[in-house]
Amino acid sequence: MDSLRRDLRTALRQLWRFPGLSLAVVATLAIGLGANTALFAIVDTLLLRPLPLPDAGRLVAVGLRPRAEAGALPHPLSRQDLEEIGRESPALQSFAGYRRDRLTARLRGEPRQLEALVTTPGLARTVGLRLELGRDLGPADVTPGGIHVAVISHALWREYFGAQPSALGSSLMLDGVPFEVVGIIAPGTPFPLASQPADLLLPWGSTPFTHDNFDHRGAYSLRGIGRLAPGATVEGARAQVRTAFDRIAARYPDAAVDVGEVVPFRTATLGKSEEVPLLLLAATAFVLLIACANVSNLLLSRALRRRRELAMRAALGATRQDLLRQLIVESVVLAGVAMVLALGLCLLLLSVPLPLGPRQAAAALTEYRVDTGVAIFSALLALAVGVGCGLAAGVLAAPGNLYRSLQEGAAGSDSRSQGRLRALLVVLEVSVAVVLLVGSGLLARTLQRLSAADLGMQPRGLVVQQVDLPATLPDPEVVLSVGRLLERVGGIPGVESVAAIYPSPLSGSGMATAARTEATGDQWPNTFDLRLTSPGVFQILGIPLRTGRDFRADDVDGHPQVLLVNEALARTVWPGQDPLGKHLALGVGSHALREVVGVVGDVRQEVDAPPRPEAYVPLAQVTPNTFDLMIRSRVPPASLQGALRAAVWSVDPNVPVSAPEGLPSRIERTLEARKLASTLSLGFAAVALLLSAIGIGGLLGNVVTQRMRELGIRRALGAQAGDLRNLVMGNGLRLVGAGLLAGGVLSLVVGQAIRGFLYGVGPLDPLTYGLSAAGLLAIALLASWAPAHRAGRVEPTEVMRAE
Q1: What is the largest CA-CA distance in the chain?
Q2: Which residue from 95, 183, 275, 416 has the fewest beta carbons nearer than 10 Å?
Q3: Rounded CA gap, 505 and 508, in Å?
Q4: Count of CB atoms within 10 A of residue 493's CB?
Q5: E strands present in 634-689
Q6: Cβ neighbours, 10 Å, residue 690
Q7: Is the peptide bond before 459 cis (omega within 30 degrees of 0)?
């Protein structure tokens, strides 16, 4: 312990003795440690931190997925499937289903949209929701008649009822229907884990959709969530769920295209949102590796300048292990100071909004912070870096031969093995910099291609306004309301045209259904996306009509059932045939076949994914209460907000009106995570270039100093200044060439690893590799110029005089 205290005192003296070098080491490590700590905090939040639900590790998502899509997350179930699977899966201690819905209530005189979960019995018990007052929804509440009771959130209880116990038994009007409040959820138990928390729980069958589809086996609209029984595993539950659903599929052949699926609830909630943070964490690890190589070189330089001092210590009785420990302690002290600065840098980085988590997740899931675990990670990383850098410098710098060390210390010379080690460190820096440059270049090229991707429509000038009519409004009234609303919005100054669609493009939501033709009978081999539209929506969106006709005003309920399909669906269902006049059924069971009257171009519903097969149905034949107005406008969305609110309230004053959104803004939001990944990776690559330049310049400067006598002799024997400059620059370019070769090989591996992030560019993109190599060569030439220029100015007489 005494020796360690002496080493610490010596380390602090050395820190003050070499302030410039100490500052360079601390700054270099702080950048690498800070970036790694910040990215670890994000990965810790998305992958390691428990979900904010009781015993969340035992929660699983249960549903269906297409047999052909291995690895897909569970899709919703029907009520009948959910009940049968629950009875035949003992690995699930409890099991429930829920569907998100929006209803309108009038609070404080203003219409307000409330987020509701329409659930089967047992959701609160399964998830772990505690009740402040009252009771949970029970089996008796879930009936085809739809008993109108509700369990409300603590926030709604406090806001609407003033947190009074008398709220129990009182009435809450939802879409014009009274619901009796029977329970109040305790605070601090959020569910679902989404950006919009639930305001209330309603029993299945109490809303128009769930009432109409209560016994409809094809209504796949319940998201299943289960709690594993003690000792049960995800794999065991998955096997039981698949066996149960296989029995269902044997009785109902139309379900045979699906298979039961069970995944951890964390996976279903966060999806693949950890991919970008993991990619950036790997990039910051590369930056830290370059920083460590640079720091090792700096510490080795300092240790070599102290070689005479170390030799004197050895002569006075210090062992090689004592000297090595001293150098490691000095390095760890520098890393410790860097860690303190790194935590400050980490806090600064995390204070900036970073769109790296799932877009629709609750704030609790994307609250990145520096907690004890992150601080311990930073401390352990700093310790490892300090020990590693000190060890790399100390192994070669600690003297073995006292006499030779005293001579070398006086002359300031460097052994051949030490020179090779320093050169190897520079090659390592360059090779890692190549990997970062290539990776960031591929991501930047991907973002460029995505930004210029043809979406199949013209988003510029499009404004989206969401409208939610009361769910209790009869279908004829919905059609009339939509017509009046389109007429009034069309008359707003600045509006060129308007139409209605549900769901709107690039909204992240969709209605998936199955496809049945005359030839397939009751079998359902294909699935596609369904959208409901009013006439004129394709012209407004800029979607080309390839053949046939658009919807007309007379395509209403009671008239021939028609639909339009996109080219992807036509190729899937009728390859090589003319789809006009063909027939397609929506849903399952006895749903009637609809005639295809037109084919439109494909539209991307995700910027980085190919178009999916889609069918479009007249909105007047399948009347949704929720839809979006697609407005072609000459003015920005904010300028339309007041007029749009007035137009909607002129049709129904009880309809809540959200702010309109520009479709280009929606597209930009889908690319946020990729833009951040591209920007940060380019920043890391720039840091890597800077550190590599410092490493090359430092090594060559040291070489010039050590070979000053040789350079003077060469000059005395007739070498020109240019020859000496070329000699030094040649050394630098050889190191860069070796680094480029090694980095190129590593980049091939990294390129394959990030293939899933790329779009429109391959992992072997020659332009990216060429620009990366050219950039490094340019930096190497700049870094080599100062040492080369110094070598060219060597005068033999001055060298001999110094000797």
Answers
A1: 108
A2: 416
A3: 8
A4: 10
A5: 661-662
A6: 17
A7: no
d(CA 45, CA 168): 37
Three-class SS state of 765: coil
Model pTM score: 0.74
Summarised one tens digit per residue, pLDDT across range 624-641 is 888 899 999 988 888 888
8 A C-beta contact, residue 394 and residue 388: no
DSSP 8-state symbol, 222: B
CA-to-CA distance for 643 and 784, rounded, in angstroms? 65
User: DSSP character for 707?
Assistant: T
- Backbone CA torsion sign across 287, 292, 293, 297: positive
Cross-strand bridge partners of residue 263: 61
Half-sphere exposure for 410 (CA within 13 Å, toward CB): 8
Average pLDDT of span 74-96: 91
Amino acid in the structure at residue 104:
T
Crossing angle of helices 79-87/234-251, nearest 10°? 120
Q: Which residue has the tokens 């397939």?
A: 520
CA-CA-CA-CA dihedral for 219, 225, 231, 233, to nearest 10 = 70
Name the region of 631 (left: φ>0; alpha: ψ -120 to 50; beta: rest): beta
d(CA 178, CA 167): 14
In the block, tokens 């060559």 appear at 700
Cis bond upstream, residue 613 (ω within 30)? no
Which residues, including other chains, have CB under 8 Å from residue 700's CB and lie 6 or more apart?
Answer: 728, 731, 732, 783, 784, 787, 788
CB neighbour burial string for 598-609, b if at least 16 within 10 angstroms, e if fewer: bbbbbbbbebbe
Nearest Cα to Cα of residue 288 among 442, 428, 130: 428
Q: Contact, 618 vs 556, CB < 8 A?
A: yes
> What pairing do the DSSP bridges indicate for beta strands 593-600 and 562-566?
parallel
Q: Please tell me the distance from the alpha carbon of residue 6 to that of residue 1, in angstroms, as a whole number.
A: 9
pLDDT digits (tens, 9 = 90+) for 185-211: 998 777 887 767 888 999 998 887 787
DSSP of 711-741: HHHHHHTT--HHHHHHHHHHHHHHHHHHHHH
Contact in structure between 633 and 461 (CB atoms under 8 Å): yes
Q: DSSP 3-state assignment of 28?
A: helix
Phi first, then psi: what are they for 190, rounded to 5°? -80, 140
11 token code pair? 């380390």
Phi, psi values for residue 583, rounded to 5°: -125, 145
